[in-house]
TrEMBL record:
Domain Integrase zinc-binding per the UniProt entry, residue ranges: 30-80
Every Tf2-1-like SH3-like domain range: 199-260
Protein name: Integrase zinc-binding domain-containing protein
GO MF annotations in UniProt: nucleic acid binding
Superkingdom, taxonomy of origin: Eukaryota
PANTHER family in the record: RNA-DIRECTED DNA POLYMERASE, ZINC KNUCKLE (CCHC-TYPE) FAMILY PROTEIN
Amino acid sequence: MPSGANLLNLFLTLSSTRKERIMLSLMLYLDEAHASGLMGHFGAKKTEQVLVDHFIWPKLQRDVERYVLHCVTCHKAKSRLNPHGLYTPLLIPSVPWEDISMDFVLGLPRTKRGRDSIFVVVDRFSMMAHFIPCHKSGDASHIAELFFREVEQVNFDASKRAEYVKKIHEQARANINKMTKMYEKHANKGRKKVLFEPGDLVWVHLRKDRFLEKRKCKLQPRADGPFKVLQKIDDNAYEIVLPSAYGVSKSLNVSDLSRFMGPVESRTTPFQEGG
Ligand SMILES: [Zn+2]
């Protein structure tokens, strides 16, 4: 592998204009200070410190920051979850039994009637809950029947009295609104809104729990890319064009994505290959 000085001479003979020569020299200095044999891909601040001990040029700090931001090796080795994406609350319902959640508590001791599970239906507006005993083996049509019998009928009368309790509803809605705003403020602390467009190139953070195969060994890269954004699902989720070898779903959370800044490679790739 040619040394930094040899490379510099090589480039100096190849390039014609003075500006180009200076640019290439700066790139080599940056490369030496950040990614050469004795350097360990330090962050922008430390790389800058190494340089200012020997050189100084206008906008050195900016150049170092840009260089580190574009370093492919750094991205792959130091990737982590990003604080991207804001908390997006559900729409606030305006009347009871308009927006409900359903869940099951399964595997309980069997009752005399053979019921071993509880079907739980909660109204997001009034927080009223129905606990309906059922069978673990009950299919969708049976559950639907239970729902209409136990929930719809009981609350039908309540909806008829809607006018009467309208005022209470308005107050409840205002309360939920206030609590949501408070929670939203808390949940979004330290997070930032990052949006991508179809066609954008991104790094994908290889989350341990999701990319099990790719993170078996500690020394494996923590990120891969760049990959193309295929489409936006919502502000916090994107469909990414991942190679089929990944074997995971192509929709990823925005906290796993960071923008691909450019193709500047560190010296370890092109220069080593040539030498
Ligand atoms: Zn680096």
